[in-house]
UniProtKB/TrEMBL annotation:
Coiled coil: none annotated. The lineage of its organism: Eukaryota, Metazoa, Ecdysozoa, Arthropoda, Hexapoda. This is Chondroitin sulfate proteoglycan 4-like. CSPG repeats lie at residues 9-106, 139-228. GO terms for biological process: anatomical structure morphogenesis. Keywords: Glycoprotein, Repeat, Signal.
Length: 415
């Protein structure tokens, strides 16, 4: 018997990863955690299927109304709470692409019912959450106590102490400052000693941007700036990172925006080896209208209609390469790639690899070897230590530890 996830291996529950946009929240429902076991057979109602939070999410929180009103409720919810849409996951807005939490499911039968021994107690499992990235706007930091001071008719280099734009999704070279309006009679900006109305955060940090005072007046004046993401024109490389749970699905999102380019078409030059790309009917539906596609439009990409489906193999990564082109008149081309990382799950049932009987005479003992009893797990992260045997019954003898000298028979041991 595989120790993790036991609740799935015993076919008590079925799990479907939750998908949420960065910084947003969504309901955790019975569509994500559903009951496979015929619970009514054991007198277990939906309110008797209890999920105890063993370890909470790392990049978000779970919210249930009863937790706010009952301090003694603890971090626990039921299958009935899921069916009534009472459980919600709230992402913390970080740049994480995956999150998860661990639960222990326990069954509470009604009066007069007794659960089989293998269903008694708590069974732990991990629930996975996929985070859809959002390209947040840049953040501009201008300390209120810092003022640019310079003598009449001189110049001064601007630094990050005065202006600092940051964006977790973009590099300093892609953060562009533009002059909105200025008191031009006072002076102008120069980049590399050439008058300019724009510069990047990278150029600012390198000390390449200066303000030059050219007027006859002195006193206080303001320079209005705005910061935006750069739009590239011409050819280049575009990389997108995608994270998906083993056997799961994730939508491609975003687009390449360039000045002077009205639309782009995408052609896959290297398809994924451990999955496929499908075109779906809508972002709220997984109905596939074209399977294993090699071409898609910019409009389909921006509407998140392109779905990557992992093939449930034990691969840890995948990759898609593509080229995005505009019309011949606009003459634009982008060569891009999508790097896909796969979070493996321990979802394969152990299989028996040896099955030989042990022969011994009455009253004797014999060492049980892997040649007599052996199970293997196809999950790449599974080890013999993770494969646990539980002794249900024993007739005519018992199993004892060959390492620990004890008179107590074994009830559990590993491969």
């Amino acid at each position: 018997m595989n120790k993790s996830p036991l609740a799935v291996a015993l076919e008590i529950i079925r799990l479907e990863p939750l998908t949420v946009s960065e910084g947003e929240n969504t309901l955790l429902s019975s569509a994500h955690i559903s009951l496979v076991l015929d619970a009514a057979r054991y007198g277990v109602r939906e309110s008797g299927v209890m999920f105890h939070i063993y370890s909470p999410p790392t990049h978000g929180t779970l919210h249930l109304e009863i937790w706010e009103h009952d301090a003694h409720a603890g971090q626990m919810f039921t299958l009935l709470d899921l069916a009534k849409d009472k459980v919600r996951y709230i992402h913390d807005g970080s740049e994480s692409r995956l999150d998860s939490f661990q639960c222990e499911v326990a069954l509470s039968p009604g009066p007069g019912f007794l659960l089989p021994s293998y269903l008694q107690g708590r069974h732990r499992f991990r629930f996975h959450i996929q985070i859809t990235p959002v390209n947040d706007p840049p953040t501009l930091t201008i300390p209120q106590t810092r003022v640019l001071r310079l003598a009449q008719g001189t110049r001064k280099t601007l630094s990050s102490d005065l202006l600092l734009a940051s964006d977790l999704d973009s590099s300093p070279a892609d953060l562009v400052f533009s002059v909105n309006q200025s008191e031009s009679s006072m002076g102008h900006l120069e980049r590399d000693h050439v008058t300019t109305l724009s510069f990047t955060q990278e150029e600012l940090s390198q000390g390449r941007v200066q303000y030059v005072h050219t007027g006859n007046s002195t006193g206080n004046f303001k320079l209005a700036l705005q910061v935006r993401l750069a739009a590239h024109k011409g050819t280049g490389n575009f990389k997108l990172a995608l994270q998906v749970v083993e056997g799961g699905q994730e939508r491609l999102s975003g687009s390449i925006v360039c000045h002077g380019v009205s639309s782009l078409s995408y052609r896959v030059t290297r398809p994924p080896r451990h999955g496929r790309l499908d075109l779906t009917e809508a972002v709220t539906s997984k109905k596939i209208i074209a399977r294993d596609i090699s071409r898609f439009s910019g409009a389909q990409l921006s509407r998140s209609l392109i779905l990557y489906s992992h093939d449930d193999s034990e691969s840890r990564s995948d990759r898609v390469e593509f080229v995005a082109v505009s019309s011949d008149k606009e003459d634009f081309q982008y060569i891009g790639s999508i790097s896909i990382s796969v979070a493996l799950t321990n979802d394969n049932a152990p299989r028996r690899s040896s099955n030989h009987s042990v022969e011994l005479v009455t009253g004797s003992s014999h060492l049980v070897l892997p040649s007599h009893l052996s199970y293997a797990d196809e999950d790449t992260d599974a080890t013999p230590h993770n494969i646990i045997y539980s002794v249900r019954s024993s007739e005519g003898g018992a199993l004892y530890s060959a390492v620990k000298q004890t008179d107590r028979p074994l009830s559990e041991f590993s491969q």
